[in-house]
Write a structure and sequence with these properties.
This protein has one domain: TonB-dependent receptor, beta-barrel domain (Maltoporin, Chain A, Beta Barrel). A hairpin with a 4-residue loop joins β4 and β5. The strands form 3 sheets. A 12-stranded antiparallel sheet has the order 1-2-3-4-5-6-7-8-9-12-13-16, with no helix packed on it. The protein has a two-stranded antiparallel sheet with strand order 10-11. It has a two-stranded antiparallel ribbon with strand order 14-15. Helix content is 2%, strand content 64%. The chain is an all-beta fold. The chain starts with a strand and ends in a 5-residue tail after the last strand.
Length: 251
């Protein structure tokens, strides 16, 4: 069993002093048994300069966001086939959450919002140089004083990935991410209220020329999917990047 505890302290002019505690615990139920985990904490975040002063949607009266978070889950490792499965429940209770209001057309504080859901993960490592996995998240939300859904937060997201260490210096990765539909709002198209519902596939490879230099090649949106991440902002399509990275080594 392992337990952790901590806190953060914020002191900001105009907003006073705030202490945010956090606690966590994990427990291994036997040598081959599942690992149980849970955490609880409180958070505090000031509104951004954009949220306060943007000439279109900014609101100088915004208050800081506060949240109480809780999660609980388990992990089970099965060594012989190289499997690691996980399931986690999460619950975030926000106070004064900053969200866009299409009625007033500016950012507003929601008095209370609850976001909760489940995360499922599965990792498979058949060989020491190959690792694959999948993940899926489903979440719901409700607000106490608004009939509008939360903006740009989908109910479902997920993905699959494959990592392959072809040699000591050459590594490749392929991944596909899926994004569910979510609420959005733009003045030019006021009747279009949702965006998304797409998948995106990326592949990449990198080769270590030396301990200091790495070359990489990456193709984003390999299947050239056509979609909008936000209403009015279409994805440009397939994009290929090639580059060189230099690592600064320290003694």
């Amino acid at each position: 069993m392992t337990a952790t505890a901590g806190f953060s302290f914020d002191k900001t002019k105009g907003y006073g002093e705030v202490t945010s505690p956090r606690l966590g615990i994990t427990w291994q139920a036997g040598e081959q048994g599942p690992r149980l985990k849970s955490s609880w904490g409180e958070g505090f975040e000031l509104p951004s300069f954009y949220a306060l002063a943007n000439p279109s949607v900014g609101n100088p009266s915004l208050q800081p966001e506060r949240v109480t978070s809780f999660d609980a889950g388990l992990e089970q490792r099965i060594d012989k086939p190289g499997l690691l499965a996980s399931l986690t429940y999460f619950r975030n209770n926000y106070r004064d959450l900053i969200n866009f209001d299409s009625t007033t057309f500016r950012l507003e504080n929601t008095s209370q919002a609850l976001i909760q859901g489940l995360e499922v993960g599965l990792d498979y490592t058949p060989y020491s140089n190959i690792r694959s996995g999948l993940d899926f998240t489903y979440q719901t939300w409700n607000q106490s004083d608004s009939a509008q859904p939360l903006r740009n937060i989908p109910h479902g997201t997920g993905g699959v990935h494959l990592d392959w260490q072809l040699s000591r210096r050459l590594h490749a990765r392929a991944e596909t991410q899926w994004m569910g539909r979510r609420y959005d709002f733009q003045i030019p198209v006021p009747t279009d209220l949702t965006v998304g519902g797409y998948s995106n596939t990326d592949v990449s490879a990198q080769y270590e020329l030396s301990s200091k230099f790495v070359v990489y090649l990456r193709a984003d949106n390999l299947l050239d999917s056509r979609y909008h991440e936000y209403i009015g902002f279409p994805n440009p399509g397939i994009a290929v990047r090639f580059g060189l990275q230099c690592r600064a080594l320290r003694k």
